[in-house]
């Protein structure tokens, strides 16, 4: 069943909930409806797709583990050198490990086998293989979650509330 994006009072995404919980928040007056998809739950109550909390809720930053899966997801499963998508994706250290490159969000990227081999033990600059996007730590676990839903193509109304 439909998921609902919950925005903070500041319009930043806060979490993802199910529509039943979203309705409860609306009825209790804790949230307002921002977007709906036109379907009616009952007359006068459209099914929400995005709601916004009326009071600001502070949430602590949650660290996202640096894993292969998460790096692939951040990079949209595409080679950061040539844009190739496919099954033969590897992880590449931008500054090679042998030259002091560390395991970090800004030094590990997704690369296809071909580019990884071609780049070898060089920096992108030395190899004349510029990165398509500067790698960095993802915003938050929620941002990660939200982009997964967006890529499924079912929650287009969420798009405008998401940065990048
Ligand atoms: Zn490539």
From TrEMBL:
InterPro entries: HNH, HNH_nuc, NA-targeting_endonuclease
Keywords: Endonuclease, Hydrolase, Nuclease
Molecular function terms from GO: endonuclease activity; nucleic acid binding; zinc ion binding
Keyword Nuclease: yes
SMART domains found in the cross-reference section: HNHc (SM00507)
Domain annotation HNH nuclease: ranges: 66-117
PANTHER family hit by this protein: OS07G0170200 PROTEIN, SLL1193 PROTEIN
Protein name per the record: HNH endonuclease
